[in-house]
Amino acid sequence: MRPSKRAPDAMRKVTLERAVARYAEGSCLVTFGETKVLCTASLEERGPPWLRGSGKGWVTAEYSMLPRATHERTRREVNSGKPSGRTQEIQRLIGRSLRAVTNLPAIGEKQISIDCDVLQADGGTRTAAITGAWVALHDCFSWMRQRSIISVDPLRDHVAAVSCGVYKGTLVLDLEYVEDSAADTDANFVMTGKGGIVEVQGTAEAEPFSEEQFLELLRLARGGIAELVELQKQTIA
């Protein structure tokens, strides 16, 4: 039995709340159970220098965890002078995931910066961030279209993410922290609304996992991401 009493293929309760940041062009507060992430999308008039003259825009992301997002206070990374390796890896993942479903030339030479701030962490912060960031990006593009900054919707598809793993010998979907910290295998899947795979991160913490287990984790992930994409559709309707 899972600590939350959920079935192996059951998600935690997921919510997506739009327009939670007054000044951002797009924003979403996403919750996966007790994990809460604030995602904002900001329009910047200039893209990165290395894209100047290309006619193509860019979507980038930053990720951070507030000091009391976890059981004990963590030091703000700004005080150490640079983000940790974990932070850099996650924010690059978020950026790659969003760019995979964005028509960058349709933005023009502008940049959308996505900020994902973890208010409370209970496992799956990166997957929650990607899922909520898509909503914030969608609303930023809607804001731009309403003001004739762009003429078409640059989003080609939905993108969402979920974790899966092997916990006490059982393959489970959407791990909370107590499962994640004790899992034999931990994997994150990023997929589009059409079912395309954007990225898979999988690690055996104890015994290596088999191909059969990997395919079962993929099956679980597809089911979870289908639920998340449907929630995204309902949220922006």
UniProtKB/TrEMBL annotation:
GO terms for biological process: rRNA 3'-end processing; rRNA catabolic process; tRNA processing. It is an enzyme of class 2 (transferase). InterPro entries: ExoRNase_PH_dom1, ExoRNase_PH_dom2, ExoRNase_PH_dom2_sf, PNPase/RNase_PH_dom_sf, Ribosomal_Su5_D2-typ_SF, RNase_PH, RNase_PH_bac-type, RNase_PH_CS. GO terms for molecular function: 3'-5'-RNA exonuclease activity; tRNA binding; tRNA nucleotidyltransferase activity. It catalyses: tRNA(n+1) + phosphate = tRNA(n) + a ribonucleoside 5'-diphosphate. The keyword Repressor does not apply. Residues 11-140, 159-222 form the Exoribonuclease phosphorolytic domain. It holds the Pfam family RNase_PH_C. The keyword Cell wall biogenesis/degradation does not apply. Phosphate binds at R86, G124, T125, R126. Coiled coil: none annotated. Keywords: Nucleotidyltransferase, RNA-binding, rRNA processing, Transferase, tRNA processing, tRNA-binding. PROSITE patterns: RIBONUCLEASE_PH. CDD domains: RNase_PH_bact. Its EC number is 2.7.7.56. Phosphorolytic 3'-5' exoribonuclease that plays an important role in tRNA 3'-end maturation. Removes nucleotide residues following the 3'-CCA terminus of tRNAs; can also add nucleotides to the ends of RNA molecules by using nucleoside diphosphates as substrates, but this may not be physiologically important. Probably plays a role in initiation of 16S rRNA degradation (leading to ribosome degradation) during starvation. Belongs to the RNase PH family. Homohexameric ring arranged as a trimer of dimers. This is Ribonuclease PH. The lineage of its organism: Bacteria, Pseudomonadati, Pseudomonadota, Alphaproteobacteria, Hyphomicrobiales.
